[in-house]
Amino acid sequence: MNRLPGLDLLRAIAIAWVMIFHSYIIGGWGHYGGVEKIGWMGVDLFFVLSGFLIGSQVLKPLSEGRALSFTDFYLRRAFRILPVYLLVVAVYFIWPSMREYPGIQPLWQFLTFTVNLLIDAGHNLAFSHVWSLCVEEHFYLLFPLLAWWLARRPSVWTFAAVCMAVVVLGMFLRGYIWIHFMAPVKGVDQNSYGNAFLEGIYYPTWSRLDGLLAGVALAVLRIYRPAWWARWGQRANVVLAAGMAVVGLAIGLFQDRTGVAATVFGYPLLSLGMGLLVWAGALENSLLARARVPGAGWLAMVSYSLYLSHKLVFHGVEAAAGHGLDGHGVATFAGYALAVLVTGALLHYAVERPFLRWRGYVVGRRSRRSIASEVPAQAGADAA
Q: What is the DSSP letter of 120?
């Protein structure tokens, strides 16, 4: 898929929003109209973007009757995800003083992307934001297999049933956790209440599939119903306005972020709103696609390195100059932001980009070999 400026802008917004949230937690941002308190929603925007982009990559060949190369798909994901990730993991375990919190889950959980399923939120919060990468890794692992299975006999009703099952199961599981593990300690033990929320509702993969599903649904619409996609392209800003309205409703519902209503209904509602925003961003006629925000494309490009490293950098800046920056509002945030951007740029250009180039060489060579092996076989079939 060609780069879409609207999606780059949304990706830039998502990473900035997440960093503002984490900077606020350690005191680097301060209080600015409440936007810093809901920055965690940037992760849900990332989920929708990933669902749409990965869904499009997987579904495009299947829709054309071509075989999906699982090897190529997993190779591309490995080259994209692992190099800089393993480097950051190494920093966390080799230099414990760099951690934003003292406690951390065992190394094997980071290497198997199971942190979000096994985390002890009361004691091991260092590098805990990797939970969202774990969710995406589980998606990368299972979605191609599910897509291949569904594409054998494409059916609108089967796809709709799978989508409904994912949403309903997520609502049921979150509601069950809230009733049986959170409600009994609400107002009695706030630590247990908060840990139960993180461990049972906020982090686990099965509770957070709504955003990825919304993105996949958009990919299905774009690839299998191109006429509908083109028709709505003429109403791109209506889609954008609807997305903003639905996200606004979700923000209202999440005023009590750990309440039962937000727990059960909030994530599907938020994902719907983010899905509409991503839809608008992918339409050429939308304001998002036509907006030209300086630096947004670059921020989107380095967002993965920023995501992985920003808490390490926040802690480093706080340890080195935190007292000197405290109480200076925007200047304080600027100090943290500059350090994060420099570190993210170094990781991207020194680690990510070289491996992405190597990925292009390896996957391209595999593709050429595959084509070369198919030509003689086809020639033999034609001669027969």
A: -
Contacts of 336 (CB under 8 A, 6+ apart): 23, 28, 29, 313, 314, 317, 325
Q: In 3D, which of 236, 289, 214 has the Cα closest to residue 54? A: 214
pLDDT at 269 over 80: yes
Q: Which residues contact 93 (CB under 8 A, 6 or more apart)?
A: 104, 107
Q: What are phi and psi of 189, to 5 degrees?
A: -140, 95
Burial class (CB in 10 A: 0-12, 13-18, 19+), 239: buried
Residues in the chain: 384
* Nearest Cα residue to 223 out of 63, 50, 66, 65: 63
Percent composition of the chain: helix, strand, coil (DSSP 3-state, to 5):
80, 0, 20
Report the pLDDT averaged over residues 339-350. 96
Nearest-angstrom CA–CA distance, 130 and 81: 12
Average pLDDT over residues 227-244: 92
**Radius of gyration for the alpha carbons in the chain, expressed in angstroms and rounded:** 22
Residue 242: burial class (beta carbons within 10 Å; 0-12, 13-18, 19+): middle
pLDDT in tens, 278-297: 999 999 889 999 998 999 99
